[in-house]
Hints:
The chain is of the alpha+beta class and about 325 residues long. Helix content is about 25%, strand content about 20%.
Amino acid sequence: MNRNQRRAKAALSRAATRDRSADRRHDANAPRACKGLLASPTSSSPTGPTNDLDGRGLGQLVIDPTQAEQQQEMIAMDHVSPNNRITPHLEAQPPPIASETDQVEIEGAEPIVHMIERVPLEEPIRVGAGGTLIVPREDIGADIDEGSELDLAGMLAQKPRKPGRREWIALNPASELPTRLLLHKPKADGMEVEHYYVDPRLRGPIRDELKEVRVFGYYSFAMKAHALWIVNVTIDNSWYESLQSLFQQPAEFFTANAIRVISDKDGARYRVKHKPIPAPVSWPSKPTTELLGKALGPDRFITSADHPIYRDLIEGVELA
């Protein structure tokens, strides 16, 4: 039994004791009140008897206010059903067991206040702390400017991937983005290639590792999604030169036709097929600079010499 329950039980016990004492006093006074209700017939006022009940001197009625009030209460109790009477025989009932939500209110008891403990955050939440990423447009015919500033901006994500040989696509030539990227193979003998954008201020030591590329937005009718096609610019390479006839087509050609790019390993070139476009295509409103930046993500932006890919490229001392 906790402190609040003990206090509640003691308070109820004291209240019951007071009620029983009051009832005993009431019972002792009741006969005297009834006896004094009718005064002696010889009682009179200085002017003579008053309130003669029947004119024959049966007695004088003397009313005591306190006794009258008690008498009225006793008479009223006689008209109350026994089941509804409050008597001194009622025992003090123990208070209900206190729960977490229901507490007994006792005078002088300390209130129980439920508190929610505040847990401090290890790090503050910063809304909008992340920046947007952009791969800027570059003149791939010009030399690398080591003093240019890095400009990052974010945008909608689109996966960079080469269209499949059996995949019909719609190509958007207006989305072309010429730039320089670092190509990295996670596995030396694998086919997967990762693309990284390098801060121009870090390009000097690895300038031979950077690749000129042309990035196009396209829509896959099979995947029902947009994607980015990164084409390596390799002058005099048969694979790259075989695509020139496609890229040189007028804008009306791409509006009216879907295309399929097929690898011809025996001829070391690409073959391109086309057919009427099956449905109109809506293109993203974001520029390719933003789309590519989002597709690469922050991990594919090399902005520090501590980046593991960059550090691996500059390690070692060249043999004289």
